[in-house]
Amino acid sequence: MSRKANCWDNPVAESFFKTLKIELVYDNSFKTIEQAKTSIFEYIEKWYNRKRLHPSLGYKTPYQVEQAFYQIKNVA
After folding, report:
1. Which residue ranges does the record assign to the Integrase catalytic domain (predicted)?
2. Contact 54/62 with Cβ under 8 angstroms?
3. Rounded alpha-carbon distances, angstroms, from residue 30 to 23, 27, 61
4. What are the backbone dihedrals phi and psi of residue 42, each rounded to the nearest 5 degrees, phi first?
């Protein structure tokens, strides 16, 4: 196991937070914490999970992978 805060701990999470910062946080100046929370929530739920394709997921969205998982789980 690597040291604390080492990027090799969880490359998927590190990649997500890098993308979040580059695509949303650095381009905006939020006036309140609530405004930042709302903006981040909308980014994740409306864009990242439903529209952004991921190479680590076979170029599917996280939403598509989740739906496929629950369909398989309900069939079994």
Report:
1. 14-66
2. yes
3. 14, 10, 27
4. -65, -40
Other CB atoms closer than 10 Å to residue 60's CB: what's the count? Answer: 15
Q: Fill in the amino acid letter for 58.
A: G
Query: Contact at 8 Å (CB) between 40 and 20?
Result: yes
What does residue 60 show for φ and ψ, rounded to 5 degrees? -120, 165
Residue pLDDT, tens place only, 29-74: 999 999 999 999 999 998 888 888 888 889 999 899 999 999 887 7
Q: Which residue has tokens 């805060």?
A: 5
Question: Can you tell me which residue has the tokens 């991921």?
Answer: 54
